[in-house]
Amino acid sequence: IVFVDKNVRVGFPATLNGKMRIQSSGGAVYLQAEEAFPVTRLQLQDLENGELILLDVSAQDGKAALEPVRLVYSGEVATASASHKG
Predict the structure, then answer these.
(1) Which Pfam families does the entry mention (predicted)?
(2) Whole-model pTM above 0.90?
């Protein structure tokens, strides 16, 4: 469980279909691995302001579930961007 304390929409790659159950409700995101998968990025989008929160998740056979995580927001959030010159 990831406690975001914000209403979010969860974006995930198609490679997780059938490998992970994902539900978002009331500021909490529930993640349940159905089988092992490598590190994969989830995008949580704040429905109020569009901000993105990126989470890298993975699952391994034989590993116990981890404790819930709470995201804590303090002060202003900085926006980072990078430009690529090619």
Answers:
(1) DUF3438
(2) no
